[in-house]
Amino acid sequence: MIRAHRIALDPNDRQAGLLMQHCGWAHTASNWAIDTFAAAWFTGEGEDNEWLTDMDLRPLFNACKADLFPWSCTLSQAPAKNAIIHTGRALKNWGAYCQARKAGQPARRVGFPKHRKRGRHMSYTASNG
């Protein structure tokens, strides 16, 4: 059983701004992971396609985040890390669906992960450590 807690917060203006920055950081990391995966997977012909897992995407993201997103240096790394992990899980589910469909087995329909949009369901997962 997975348990989650949803806690109502009453942040002041500075704290609310920081929370929204972390939400934006998570959505940016997730969108970057989807774009990077799509570039590696959909550009090749035949066997040249490369399947990137979250364990492949995270080092790539850490290597380029200072150059691509210099504004993120003051934010926690946990929202971005967890967003990439969640995106990797979504890609894995999509891949399992595609394999089941190709094998002719019935499976729950799963679409390719969509980009996260600003201002709608803004959230991120914080690590407790």
Q: In words, what does this structure look like?
A:
- This protein is mostly helical and 129 residues long.
- The chain has a domain of 81 residues.
- α1 packs parallel to α3 and α2 crosses α3.
- The longest helix has 30 residues.
- It is globular.
Please provide the count of β strands.
0
**What is the CA-based Rg, rounded?**
17 Å
Structural class: mainly alpha
Global shape: globular
What's the number of helices? Answer: 3
The proportion of residues forming helix, as a percent range, comes to 40-55%
- How do the SSEs run, as a string of H and E? HHH
Q: In terms of per-residue confidence, which ranges show pLDDT below 50 for 5 or more consecutive residues?
A: none
Main β-sheet description: none
- The mean pLDDT is 88
Strand content: under 5%
- What separation lies between the terminal Cα atoms? 21 Å
